[in-house]
Amino acid sequence: MMCAADFRRIARESLKGKWGIALGTGLVASLLGGTIGSGGTSVNINSSNVERHFSSGELESFFYSDTFRHLLPLIFIIGAILAVWSLVMLVLGGAVSLGYAKFNLNLVDGQPPRFDDLFSEFHRIWPAFCLQFLMGLFVVLWSLLFIIPGILAAYSYAMAPYILAENPDMTAREAIAASKEMMRGNRWRLFCLGFSFIGWGLLCALTLGIGNLWLRPYEEAAQAAFYRDLSGTAQPAAPEPGEYRFDPSGDYQPPQ
Fold it and tell me: What is the pTM of this model?
């Protein structure tokens, strides 16, 4: 049985000479809300830090100041841009996730990964949206019981984007059901795979999150390799120079 180190090795081999396109594609996927397994960098604002700089009276004075009135149009513009961006991510995020899954599957299959793979599933925008919405809804509902069931549900649904990307006739609910069946007994393996990147995650934190631009393609390629292993659809590796390949007929083929 393959372990986390094997999936990371496959990811590294798949990314050789392709880091540029993988980095750019992963960045655009993140900006458009296309997420599969890996998370992004979050910024935590501590309210005590705010209170340290502004008391309630100072904040009230600031809101009535000329400076705030001059900044108000800019605040509205930024708010409108963020609202539009959030709407775009909500509508397109599911289709981008399927396209990003296809990109990473091509990568680990040894096929030429293409940036336009990211937009190749836009004709399936409705089932892709349903998949993303249902996965998020089910995880939230399970989390209402307790946080652990929510985490387990997230792992159970993790393979659904790959399944739907490769099975255009499936519905979102069928892809989720297939993922649950595929992940039965394998959630711990996926957890171990994600945990194996913790050292790289800590190093990325030291770069203020910039290192995540390189870490995310690495994680996504490893998870695509994990899916290939679970689904039994991994592509056979090409023989090394001088290596003999077994022929199902019973004969050995000499090296070319």
Answer: 0.72
